[in-house]
Amino acid sequence: MLAHHDAIACVRLVPIFQQLNHDTISAVAELVQERHVKKGEFVFMAGDHADSLIIMAHGQVKVIQSSASGREQMIRLLQTGDFDGESVLFEDAERQTSAEALTDTQICLITRQDFQKLLTQSPAVAINMLNALGKRVSQLEAQAAATLTTSVGERLANYLVETSSELETDDFDLPLQKKDLALYLGTSPETISRKLKQFSTDGLISQHGRNHIKLTDVDGLMMVEN
Amino acid sequence: MLAHHDAIACVRLVPIFQQLNHDTISAVAELVQERHVKKGEFVFMAGDHADSLIIMAHGQVKVIQSSASGREQMIRLLQTGDFDGESVLFEDAERQTSAEALTDTQICLITRQDFQKLLTQSPAVAINMLNALGKRVSQLEAQAAATLTTSVGERLANYLVETSSELETDDFDLPLQKKDLALYLGTSPETISRKLKQFSTDGLISQHGRNHIKLTDVDGLMMVEN
DNA sequence: AAATGAACTTGATTTACGTCAAGTTCATTT
DNA sequence: AAATGAACTTGACGTAAATCAAGTTCATTT
Q: Is residue A4 exposed (0-12), middle (13-18) or buried (19+ Cβ within 10 Å)?
């Protein structure tokens, strides 16, 4: 168990708990469980009973879905402030996805029961959550439209730019395999390899090795059209 | 202006106002504006000031986005119970999209101010809204994954099956142009034409003319793989 | 330090689907 | 009812990117 002030510090990191008064933050801190997950460990696995909302306090987590045919698909990369398990709010079900920590990670856990209680007690939290979900919907809609209308090169460039902008540190070092990146962007590892090589040739990125991409010209990447 | 009991009837149709007590429903009905929109008319247009959440009480509405290059893209087909404008919750902006009624349509309107007030007063509404948004997120995530991994034929078949299941009436008669369908599914009208012809040959649909597709073998459509 | 295998690169080949083009059908207007 | 034009169909062709295949690099294990 945590010291209370540690829990408060964790809660403060989370966007949906921002701009609350002190009493509410204390109340939230009472309900939140903090957990550390080391690089390579799983935050949760498919089949687990899904009874908690998970909020990223720090780190990077890869959410993957294993299809019936045994193939893995990366669904999402969780960064600080993101949350996962909104379906927990309305469904008592098993997790469909697994989540693996790519870096040492700190998360906040809150159970469905506690979260629902919190929502009824604190309208401010509900509104923050609605805002967050609304933004996620907008983002997904934009992404869906982009997926349908743009080339692999554009999508990759966009992804790199977006992900780097969400990152806390300056030196962009994406701990993802090309395989994951490929499946996330709806392409193949071979194509990722070729496109990154091309970006490298064009001077947009300085290097890309195993789990490592270093950006040099973000503005240039933003203009990639093929 | 509406008679109060008409407003209540309208409110009852809307999923996010379900399972509320009578007092709350009355309160909601006070805030809601009802509007009828005839086939072919616009519910809203890009550039309008976006200050209301729109909830579909009855009918079908096509949401389109006109890109800078002048091309139109269908973003979404709104059916009964769907709502649009969740971004209204957190942004005071102009509408980016236009919405055209494909059938005679009945909608509920509620302003941002009123809705935010409602949220703070009635946690039940907030939770319903969170559920609805959570479901929409899940749906969009599933759609994004499908878009990336499936062929046009599969996507089209899936879309027909899903849309028909959401429809109230039995006889499926989709009032969409092939152009819209094409842009929504990320393909071209020509390809839609060819795929529908193939479905027709395979006995999965009985006919498809201008704004008209009639399904015969939904189970068969669900199995389409190419 | 050698060995093993996963991750990655690079090239050759194939294919689904977009684009262009030339009709045809159908609804609306006059 | 004739005329106009948008929606649609069908065929021919081109291309981005998937797939297949054969190496090469690198990290982990022994």
A: exposed
Phi/psi of residue A37, nearest 5 degrees = -130, 125
C-beta of residue B60 within 8 angstroms of C-beta of residue B104: no
Question: For the residues A91-101, what does the mean pLDDT come to?
Answer: 86
CB A19 within 8 A of CB A25: no
Please give the C-alpha separations between residue A188 and each of A42, A177, A202, B63, in angstroms, as whole numbers.
25, 12, 21, 32
pLDDT digits (tens, 9 = 90+) for A21-78: 899 999 899 999 999 998 889 999 988 998 899 999 888 999 988 766 556 788 899 9
Q: Which residues of the protein are close to the nucleic strand C, CB under 7 angstroms?
A: A 177-179, 189-190, 192-194, 196-197, 208-211; B 151-153, 186-188, 190-191, 209-210, 226
> Would the pLDDT of B24 be above 80?
yes
pLDDT confidence bin for B9, thresholds 50/70/90: confident
Which pTM was predicted?
0.86
Tokens for A135? Answer: 């933004």
Q: What are the tens digits of pLDDT across the range A139-197?
A: 888 888 888 889 999 999 999 998 888 776 666 778 889 989 998 999 999 999 999 99
Three-class DSSP category at A123: helix
- The DSSP H or E segment spanning B77 is strand B72-78
- Which residues from chain A sit within 8 angstroms of residue B186, using beta carbons? 147-149
CA-to-CA distance for B77 and A31, rounded, in angstroms?
40
Chain B residues with CB-CB distance to A65 below 8 A: 145
Cβ–Cβ < 8 Å for A205, A214: yes
B120 in contact with chain A, both atoms CB, cutoff 8 A:
yes
Is A38 exposed, middle or buried, given 0-12, 13-18 or 19+ CB atoms closer than 10 A?
exposed
Nearest to A33 by CA among A47, A45, A51, A15: A51
Going along chain A from its start, the domains and CATH numbers come out as: 4-122 (2.60.120.10), 150-222 (1.10.10.10)
